[in-house]
Amino acid sequence: MPQPVKLCLHQASRVLEIEFDSGEVFRLSCELLRVWSPSAEVMGHGPGQRVLQVGKEGVNIRAIHPVGHYAVVLDFDDGHSTGIYSWTYLHELGRQQGEYWQRYLAELAAAGIQRKEPQP
Question: What's the predicted TM-score (pTM) here?
Fold first, then answer.
């Protein structure tokens, strides 16, 4: 499993940039990270219990807290800070961010919710 060698939060653009020792570099939006938080609040406690997150277009990360040598906790400015993002999960989000994003948009559409573009 690739390990991160650089983690850089770009607050102005609301992007977390992660570089892995495999040479891969991913730029993950704070919105994507927030709506796919691995927390029980978002994912539930079992299959099919995921809770759709809405209104997260302008969310940002306030702080990043390491969890041992295997993960980080992202402290979002909407008060959410319970997800533990393992390096494996962040790598998966990076490699499959297009699929995760499309799935999120499809979930919003199915719920009849219109996503608004965040203000700069």
Answer: 0.95
The pair phi, psi for residue 63, each rounded to 5°, is -155, 155
Summarize pLDDT for 21-77 with one digit per residue, the tens.
999 999 999 999 999 999 999 999 988 899 999 999 999 999 999 999 999 999 999
Q: How far apart are CA 118 and CA 65, in angstroms?
A: 25
Residues 6+ apart with CB under 8 A from 104: 32, 35, 36
Q: What structural domains does the chain harbor?
A: 4-110 (3.30.2020.30)
Is the Cβ–Cβ distance between 19 and 27 less than 8 Å?
no
The pLDDT value recorded for residue 28 is 98
DSSP for 85-115, please give it. EEHHHHHHHHHTHHHHHHHHHHHHHHTT-PP
